[in-house]
């Protein structure tokens, strides 16, 4: 698996592909790849002639008290995972390659970033939009792949791509889960054995909310209450948020109609986990 | 001269050119074109196979008390001017085409926008960066042309293009002046006969500053004083700013060395005019 470190190198390789008339997919990641990422790479490989996977722990999307330093990294493992899933190139820049001196420009979007993770991680989505916009300009892909696991990120990327006319198609991909229901996440590696067991409360509680909607419940607050009540049965869980929002704008909705995102963030010990489902009614 | 109104149309035309292997230049303008704009179009036509001129009075770069409504518009005249100068296509979107409902994403850059016009026009450069970034994504030009007349805008566009890796070369073009020295500007049309005469004080005062530097003056404050003192001899002139900054970062410099921008903004009656020169020592 070829790994390049500089903007110049990735551009030269993609320009060569373009000359051959090949299409290009991009899967932006922070590395420590799991089957969730691999599902994005596989999707890209099925829709494009070539797939670039960026592996970059983006410092500007971490707040001052977040886990930038602790975030797990293993490039050799990532190379294997990309190979397995059918990717063609890893772009793995150093922070100084992405953020040279006097770096002072940002892409930001407001509406979709106000609630959920945006409310508690104030610089997070500015960092996400900026690095994703940079990657679009570096790779110039036809399509880019984002997991529904980070549903607010997906809605936010879709918004800034539309607003700023980036010539790239955003392809959403479903959440990949462990056999017992836990959503795959690089941060799951932080969990000890007890926490790993306790973390099941997220997917289990969401399932109860989804069942209520499927049984006809349309009152968002009642769905929230069902989920919160179940989350509270787990002594190791501390709720950050339980929200019901319209998926396009990420604004609260009182009744469940249209495309609705039910999203939760829960601390298990010191590890903050997120999970969600989307319904379309 | 072909004029298109939608993103879709301009993309289709440019895609056709690309298929033929042609290079594309972009000249972003707010219309009411004069010889300054035409010099950009000519430069683009000399360096690219095809030149797109955008004509769009961009609402989001005007503050609430600025001249958005009054800003002069004349598309038929602009079509002639583009034709004369060798442009191939005008992109003239309606505001709703550029800013649809729930438009909430912006490109912003801090350092180069703090002083000069950025200090008195707080949303101006966010609006400029956003519309220019959109135009880059819509047209995907090889090169884009900006006049040194708007020197802070030029430095700001260069900065965000570098920071966000937009794959476009920024080509700066010198100021074009009337025979008597007044820098060409669409806003000159606001001046009555007396104001038009009084407006000469801008270029005359800058000339004195430039002569002082050429004679060996390296103290920025002394150059500022020479320019201010001369501007104050014109009763119809009201100084907004006189500044000496390094051109790359648009930060104040005490001594004149390297690439230095000497920039002024002066009200003549109700009309705010800007002018500048750059030295490289």
From TrEMBL, chains A, B:
It catalyses: (R)-pantoate + beta-alanine + ATP = (R)-pantothenate + AMP + diphosphate + H(+). One of its GO terms (molecular function) is ATP binding. It is an enzyme of class 6 (ligase). One of its GO terms (biological process) is pantothenate biosynthetic process. (R)-pantoate binds at residues 61, 153. Its EC number is 6.3.2.1. It comes from the Bacteria. It is found in: Cytoplasm. ATP binds at residues 30-37, 147-150, 176, 184-187. The active site is at residue 37. GO terms for cellular component: cytosol. Beta-alanine binds at residue 61. The keyword Cytoplasm applies. Pathway: Cofactor biosynthesis; (R)-pantothenate biosynthesis; (R)-pantothenate from (R)-pantoate and beta-alanine: step 1/1. Its main location: cytoplasm. InterPro entries: Cyt_trans-like (IPR004821), Pantoate_ligase (IPR003721), Pantoate_ligase_C (IPR042176), Rossmann-like_a/b/a_fold (IPR014729). Keywords: ATP-binding, Cytoplasm, Ligase, Nucleotide-binding, Pantothenate biosynthesis. Belongs to the pantothenate synthetase family. The reaction proceeds by a bi uni uni bi ping pong mechanism. PANTHER family: CYTIDYLATE KINASE/PANTOATE-BETA-ALANINE LIGASE, PANTOATE--BETA-ALANINE LIGASE. Catalyzes the condensation of pantoate with beta-alanine in an ATP-dependent reaction via a pantoyl-adenylate intermediate. Homodimer. This is Pantothenate synthetase. It comes from Xylanibacter ruminicola.
